[in-house]
Structures are given as C-alpha cells and as structure tokens.
Amino acid sequence: MSFLEISALAKHHGDGVNRTNVLGDVNLKVEEGEFIAILGFSGSGKTTLISTLAGLIKPDKGGVIFKGKEVGGPSPDRGIVFQSYSLMPWLTVEGNVDLAVSEVFKGKSKAKRQEIVRHYIDMVGLSHAAERKPAELSGGMRQRVAVARALATKPEVLLLDEPLSALDALTRAKLQDEFAAISENEKKTIILITNDVDEAILLADRIIPLTPAPNATLGKEFKVNLARPRDRVAMNSSDEFIRLRSEVTEYLMAMGIERGADLARDIVLPNVTPIFARENRSLENKLLPKAYEEAAKPQSLVEEKYLEFSKLTKVYSTPKGPLTVIEDMDLKMKKGEFITLIGHSGCGKSTALSMVAGLNKITKGSIVLDGKHIEKAGPDRAVVFQAPSLLPWLTAYENVALGVDEVYPNANKSEKKDICEYYLSRVGLGDAFNKAASDLSNGMKQRVGIARAFALSPKLLLLDEPFGMLDSLTRWELQDVLMDVWKRTKVTAICVTHDVDEAILLADRVVMMSNGPNARIGNIMEVDLPHPRSRKDLLNHPDYYAYREELLDFLEAYEGGANPTEEQLKSIEEKRATRLKRQRAA
C-alpha cells in the first residue's frame, strides 16, 4: 500500500448555474520520502487539490488515503504552507512558531517545546530575527517563518501550495535550496504545487501536470533522473535536464493550446498617423523644451542612437543622506531594437525605466529619444506595468480607446474604432471588447494593457516586469502575444525582467545590471538567435542554454550583494563563447 494515495477524487464549487466541476477523477500514489511536483495553469484546481490533501475541504467523490486511513479532516501529520504567509502580526517569529508547537506537543515540557521551536527557526536561517514581528520582515523571511512553523509540528507529509510564487527570483532561489535540503535531511514526503518548470525539475522526483479545469485531472507523469544535489546553473550543461525541460514545457504548451484560444477578428489596420509623428511639426515644436534644439542630430546618427542614455544617474534623498541608485549609466539603442534589463532586486532596473518614461526626474546625465531630451511623460512612450492599471469601470475597448482618442486627433471615429479592435484582436481578446475590466482575469487585463500600449503607435515601448504577477503558463502565452505584435510593428522596446528565459526570448541584447546602490551596467549580452522567436524554437536551439547559463552565472556572481571583478565577469562571457564555439563545431 502507498504511503499516501488519492483515489478517484472529484470536487466542485457552487451549485446550479454557478456550479463549476473543478477536479474530476484524480488518482495518485505517493511513496514515503518522495518529492512530487504538481504543475498547472491558474484556475486548474491546484489549491483545491492541496486543500483536499490537507483535509481542509471534503471531496464530492473518492478520497485521500494516508497510511491506510481515509483523511477526514486536518491533522498535524500533514503540514501545509500556503502562498500567503498567514502569520499572527502581533506575535514574533518565535511566537508564531511556538503557537503551532504548543498546540501539537501539549504533552512536552516547555523547555522541550522551546528547543523544537529554536531548532526549526535556525533551520530556515532566522535565528537572528527570532524576536522580530512579521511587519519587520521581508516577504522571503515571512515565508521562512511559515515553513519553520509547518516543519516544527514534525509532519510526515509537507504540502506546499505555490509557497514561492510571490517572491523575487533571488529569494525564491534561496528558499528552493532550503526545500531541497529539507527533503534530503528530514527525509520528508513533500508535495509541491507550482507553476514553475525549473523549480519542479530542481526539487522533485516526479513531475505531474494537472490538466486545465473544469474536471481537471492528473496528466502525463515525468520522472526526474538527475542526481542530487542539483545545481541550477550546472544543470544547463546536462543533456538530461535539457531533454526533460523541453519535454515538460512542450507538454504544458500543448495543454494550453487545447484549453482554447480567444477569438480574433480579421481587421485591417487603418493608415492613420499619431500626433507626435505628423510631418508638419511646426505647432508641436512650439511645445517642445529647449533641449530639443540642443539634441537635434542628423537622421543617420539618430538611427544608430535612436535612444541614448548618457551618464544617467539617479540620487534619492533619505534621512541617512543621499542614496545613489544608478550611477553613470551609458547605453545606446538602434531604432527597432528590443533590449531587456535584468538584475537582482534593488539594481535600479525599474528606476531607469521610470526615468525613460518621464515619470521620475533625472538627477544627472540625460536620456535622448529620436533627437529629443526626455524631461516629462509623453504619448511617444507607452508603458506596460506589472499591474495592468486599467480603469475597472470601463470595458476593455474603452480602456484602449482612452489613449487612442488622445494620440490620433485627426482620425475619424471609424478609424479609431479599427485601431482599438485591431490590437485587442491581436492580443486574443476579439470576443471580450465589451467586458468590463473588473470582470477580466489578471492575464486578460494584461493583454488589454499590451493592446493599449501598441495602439498608441509609440516611438518607445517600455515594459516593467509586465508578466511578473502571472503564473508561468499564462506568462508564456502573453510573451508569445507580445512577440507576435512586436514583429508587426518593430517598435523600439525595453523590458525590465527578473526572468532569465524571458530576457533571452524577447531581446536582441540583454543588459545585465550590477547590484545597487550605485548600480551600473555590469555586462551586455548579444543574443544571436533567429527572429521571430518562439519558446518552442528556443527549447530546441543548440545555443539557447549557453545564453541561459551566462545569465544565471552573472546573477550568481552578484548574489547576496557580491561585487565581482571585471575578470570574473569576463570569464563568464568567455565561458559562453567557448561553449557556443564547441557546439557549432560539433
């Protein structure tokens, strides 16, 4: 008999016309000490499944058998860590962990309970913060408290419901390493719910996708035949990792296609010109700052330096004195080029983007776009933020039309309508023109944001972690949408991201930022991969993992606030060049 078994499990929510069949005929056998990763789309029923395993909700049919007995409710034998931290804000780190320990181990002495509490606080690296309250902790530290609390009850099964999805890449990597160590040292049986393929491969013995709801069930099983301990950088040189990653990703992408795409309408984009691109600029010139005349350059030079950062510096005033976030950043972009900015949290990526957008005042240096100094926000620069920033009481169409009405003053009503509908259709919202923004999913809202940005026909498209709030599978879909629309417009674009794969997929060049404060450009990587790109093409391209390895090596070199030497950075670049040369000679 299996240690833990799910048998013919089914669960629905709601009744009558509001009934949704979430899970249908889910079956799984887990051996003691196994680490299982379950991958799935948002809304596929992953949290419903993990809550059923924990005994927090009852299934309609079937059930969960744990050590030969049916699960009828929650038990300390099955510890759970959710995406949200669920800590008591008035208690310290030690108090939050002690709350669980004192409930589960009532028969133990106070000294023994305190010993257990301190052991698990130390295991997650929070001994130095034991007396702090949650409000004094970072997101990563709060999640460590939740993990320590779950482990301190000494469960036989640890259930993890996307515990790292809200964290930045560096904190996520550190906690992934801790989960790997817990699995190895504590010999726990662990079931991890995640939407991250790399996380699943790094940690699990088996990976099992959950098919999309309604009636979601477990799909094809993938065995992870990689020796432990696993190193996220070194794995990029493993043929088995590359094969498995490609196979899992392509399987998930195929599931995404099967769940149905949004309808698109065949609309021809009208030949109308935005206000800032009119040939007659006499009126417009009267509104421009003096910096326009000073920055005027011959067209041949402007094409090569369409966007130029020159000694760009940003200093904030703080109670402890001036804080230099970015210092002397120099960068030139060609017209139609797409670059991505990557680096650890606090390296000034979003600060640089906000200065280009004209939303943040430049302290020193300059930014020149198409011969004009940037001094304030303008419709020639469209921004897509991490949060969609839509007006919730307006429809998808009306949110796009707001910008179109301003930017195309000479277009007639029919032409403006075609512009709005063209871009909404291009991002897969052909059947959602009249849906209120408040009724759209996060992924659909971000599609509207992308449509709105492209509809402005900007000179420069600025993307500030536009898919950071979305699950991996929705993010893949929207990256493809972005690339599809971009290849039609070839607008000059900058995208801030912490996602290595996204950086390579989108960019002609990846600009790697050093740690802040006083952040600068640490390295620039030319991405010599053919356009148009798709995730599937990259997974099968022999050079892709060499680029990926360089970015991971770069981020690792700056991990924990480190400041690598020029020689170290050069060696990372040379390592990639050597690998590419070897691969192409084979």
Structure, described:
By secondary structure, this protein is α/β, with parallel strands linked by helices. It has 19 helices and 20 strands. It has helices spanning 46-54, 93-104, 110-123, 139-152, 169-186, 197-203, 239-258, 282-287, 291-295, 299-304, 349-356, 396-407, 413-426, 442-455, 472-489, 500-506, 535-539, 544-557, 566-585; strands at residues 4-13, 20-30, 35-40, 61-66, 69-70, 78-81, 157-161, 189-194, 206-210, 222-223, 307-318, 321-333, 338-342, 364-369, 372-373, 381-384, 460-464, 492-496, 509-513, 521-526. The strands form four sheets. The chain has a six-stranded mixed β-sheet with strand order 6-7-8-3-9-10, sandwiched between helices. Strands 16-17-18-13-19-20 form a six-stranded mixed β-sheet, with helices on both faces. A four-stranded antiparallel β-sheet has the order 2-1-4-5, with helices on one face. Helix 2 runs parallel beside helix 4 (139-152), helix 3 (110-123) packs across helix 4 and helix 13 packs across helix 14. The model is unreliable at 261-265 and 277-302 (pLDDT under 50).
> What's the end-to-end separation, in Å?
49 Å
Percent of residues in helical segments?
A: 25-40%
- In terms of DSSP E residues, the strand content is 15-25%
Largest sheet strand order: 6-7-8-3-9-10
The quaternary structure here is single chain
